[in-house]
Structures are given as C-alpha cells and as structure tokens.
C-alpha cells in the first residue's frame, strides 16, 4: 500500500519547508507581556520598587542608595585609573632616561673602539684582563652591545626572553556618568521625585500593591502612559495634563510652586529584556541554521526589534 513520505523524508540534499519549520528556521515574533517590561516605579539599577527615588535630568529614575553607591564606585574607579596613568607616565619617563644613558654609553664605546681598537690588550699572569687596560675589539667579554642584544632578543621559546605586550592606559575621564543613559551626571543634578498614591476608595478591586495616580486627572498611572516630573518640587503628572495645564500655567498643580519650562523632565519608559520598547511591544528574532544545512552560505539577518 503506498505511503506518503513528503513530511518525514530525510535523504534529500536540502531541507524541505516542513523540516525547516520544525527546526524553528525563520523570523519568530513574540508579544512582550507585563513581566518583560520594567515598571515605571522601578529603579533602573536594582529593578525593584523605588526607595527614596531620585531622577536624573534625562528622566531615568533610581533608588537613592543605588545611584549614590554607583557614583561612589565610579569615583573610586576614576581614582584608580588616574593612579595607573600616573604610574605609566613615571615608567615612561624612567625608560626615556635609561635610553639616554644607554645612548651615551654607546657613543663612548664607539669612541673607544675608534681610538683604541688597534691597541693590543694587556693581561696579567693569570690571563685576566687588566682593569686599567684598554677595551678594544679583541675583548672576549660581553660588551654593552651584546648585553643589549641579549636583553632585546625576541625568542618566544625562552621564558626569560619572551617579549611582553605593553598595555597603555589612556587618560581617563574624570566625569561620572549616568548608568542608564551614559551622559555626564553629577550628584547635585539629581532631584527627588514623588508619586501620588491612590487612596483606598480609588483603588480598583482588592489590589495589594501600591498604585499611583496623576494628581490632576486622578487616572491610575500605568506603563502605557507618558509621565512628566517637575524638577523643582518632584511631583509627577501624566503627559496630557502637563501639556494642557503645566506648560501654560508654569506652576505645579499639587503645590502651586512656580517653575520654568526647562524644569519639566519627561520620564523614560521602562526597557525590556530585548530593547527599549517605546511604542513597539513585539520582539522579532531570525534563526539561521548555518552552512551545511542546505541553505547555502547565506548570512543571518540582523536582529530587529
């Protein structure tokens, strides 16, 4: 009785469409869920709910302890790099002085060879060379040139003569940077922010976790909303209320504290495990089976998000 072997045939020189599907070849798409996106009230360093939140001028939020510890570690690292750079400069200066001394010794030896090369050497009865004698071309002892040749000999099979690659330390930057945006960041440029917590009557259902709202429109803040913080007082509003009231009134709707337009800092949305999502929440990845799989030497397509 005839049987169909189109889906389980494996003696071909190339992969069939069904076999490539089983191996997961091609572009795969996945919708990112809530667990893949950092909450708006989470620290960019520890990814936990904010404790004493601080915000940088670019809108990245951190816990106070996390960002202070990060900046302190950066300062210690800068201090260590500066010390290494100073040690390298000192070593280079010593090497330059050593080269000058060696160059002078070469010139003296060349002068000695030129003036006393034809004079015979004087030895004592034991056969050793006289200390006050001439050091001409007939000297059997190692000269400074031979010592330098032995020292600079590049013989990889001798551990003592193996050349070492010199690692140069560049001049480090003395500025601390934001761990999220990589822009220059100082401690005095950070400002505290505060979210308005919803009351028990405004919470929907029996939510155990804290929920926050916009002080102006009283809507619950979620990851889908764009937020704006006022750097003078630290209150956080939604983007709609900011464009409608804050930009025009130039005063905080919560504490009535005046501010300038430059004090409105839009908060950055939470990133995902793939990339900063912004408005696109679909992750795409292309799987390549490689050469020898019947697909030829086709280069894999770059990952797109």
From TrEMBL:
One of its GO terms (cellular component) is nucleus. SUPFAM superfamilies: RING/U-box. Residues 214-256 form the RING-type domain. The keyword Transport does not apply. Keywords: Coiled coil, Metal-binding, Nucleus, Zinc, Zinc-finger. GO terms for molecular function: ubiquitin protein ligase activity; zinc ion binding. It holds the Pfam family zf-NOSIP. Gene3D superfamilies: Zinc/RING finger domain, C3HC4 (zinc finger). It is found in: Nucleus. Residues 68-106 form a coiled coil. InterPro entries: NOSIP, Znf-NOSIP, Znf_RING, Znf_RING/FYVE/PHD. Its main location: nucleus. Belongs to the NOSIP family. This is Nitric oxide synthase-interacting protein.
